[in-house]
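A reminder from the course coordinator: this example appears on the midterm review sheet, so study it carefully.

Given structure:
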């Protein structure tokens, strides 16, 4: 899709970096397999990175670093996730037995091992959206975070409804121009995001809590849904782009990564990353024309907005003298977000950046701020600057 859109010659691309989260063993370096499948030369190196929900952000900034270091002129970065077909493992007991069985030399040894297999050996291990360090699912963390910041179920539902409504408006208005049609084998061609479903507060209010039962406030309606998806972007040094006759969309101007307590502050990455990236870029919140934040949960977004607007939080948790301030909603995720567009883990970062660039073009702004939380208590923020039109 990227090659068709940009007409970039395959042999000009120096390197390919992709992000993914739930890896398939057969294609653990999915960047390399995708590159070969797309017809790139087998001489073009490719590697895969993983950093939970900010994996393609890491792919982008890895590419930026390689260009800045003079290693490359042209990099393709992106991410991919196939949530509809995640690898499911045998139990550890079964895996151990099968590996031992593979090494057994005599029939007697094999039969002895087989006789030790018990029914519970056949229980599969499903990938869980849970923290390894705390064993807590992200939904539980979101529920606790919403409670800690006093965010009601109604506020979360209202924000989720806003996301779906804005996404539908953007889709109907032809603004989501970065979507590439994809032919699903045995099914119809997918031409647009199919998770955008503006509902009503009444309908959303009927849903039961999804994680903390019966008193939780996080539901299926105010959480991002898991979906399949892939993203790709073309990164070049400005000199190379102009020499090849390309007009860039935007500069990836500055970026930071942060990490904090994975239990109580799992989803507060944007709060910690935003002031740091603004300081690095020499900007203030008032300079930002477009905000694109990853919407893991409505409660997570609203908690970040409250934390960013709190002097107390800045002083007690961030070691800062004053708050950075909350982004104004009229500039925030105006074309929908992960709550309405879906969240294919490894692909979302590039979507955020490209949407920021397109919004800057459409709205005539100069600076965009992209931010996201990620599992492990990590986070990312990036400044996107519109290329002079």
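Designed residues:
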């Amino acid at each position: 899709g990227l090659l068709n859109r940009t007409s970039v010659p395959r042999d000009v691309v120096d390197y390919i970096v992709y992000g993914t989260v739930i890896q398939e063993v057969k294609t653990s370096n999915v960047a390399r397999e995708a590159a070969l499948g797309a017809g790139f030369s087998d001489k073009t190196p490719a590697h895969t990175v993983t950093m939970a929900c900010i994996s393609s952000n890491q792919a982008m900034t890895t590419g930026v670093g390689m260009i800045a270091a003079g290693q490359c002129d042209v990099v393709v970065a992106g991410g991919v996730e196939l949530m509809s077909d995640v690898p499911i493992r045998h139990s550890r007991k079964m895996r151990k037995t099968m590996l031992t069985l593979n090494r057994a030399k005599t029939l007697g040894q094999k039969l002895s091992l087989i006789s030790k297999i018990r029914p519970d050996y056949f229980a599969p291990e499903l990938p869980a959206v849970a923290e390894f360090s705390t064993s807590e699912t992200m939904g539980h963390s979101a529920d606790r975070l919403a409670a800690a910041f006093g965010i009601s179920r109604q506020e979360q539902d209202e924000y989720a409804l806003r996301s779906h409504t804005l996404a539908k408006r953007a889709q109907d208005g032809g603004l989501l121009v970065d979507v590439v049609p994809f032919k699903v084998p045995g099914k119809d061609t997918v031409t647009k995001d199919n998770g955008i479903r503006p509902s009503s507060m009444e309908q959303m209010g009927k849903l039961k809590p999804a994680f903390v039962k019966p008193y939780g406030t996080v539901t299926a309606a105010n959480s991002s849904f898991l979906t399949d998806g892939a993203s790709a972007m073309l990164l070049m040094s400005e000199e190379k782009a102009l020499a090849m006759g390309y007009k860039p969309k935007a500069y990836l101007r500055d970026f930071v990564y942060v990490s904090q307590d994975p239990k109580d502050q799992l989803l507060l990455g944007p709060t910690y990353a935003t002031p740091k990236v603004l300081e690095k870029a020499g900007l203030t919140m008032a300079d930002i024309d477009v905000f694109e934040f990853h919407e893991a949960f409505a409660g997570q977004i609203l908690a970040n907005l409250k934390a960013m607007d709190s002097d107390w939080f800045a002083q007690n948790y961030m070691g800062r003298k004053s708050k950075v301030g909350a982004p104004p909603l009229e500039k925030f995720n105006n074309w929908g977000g992960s709550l309405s567009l879906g969240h294919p883990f490894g692909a979302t970062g590039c979507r955020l950046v490209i949407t920021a660039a397109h919004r800057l073009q459409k709205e005539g702004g100069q600076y965009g701020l992209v931010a996201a939380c990620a599992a492990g208590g990590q986070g990312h923020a990036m400044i996107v600057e519109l290329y002079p039109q």
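The CA atoms of residues 56 and 350 lie 6 Å apart. The beta strands are 15-19, 46-49, 74-81, 182-183, 189-190, 229-236, 250-259, 290-293, 367-374, 378-386.
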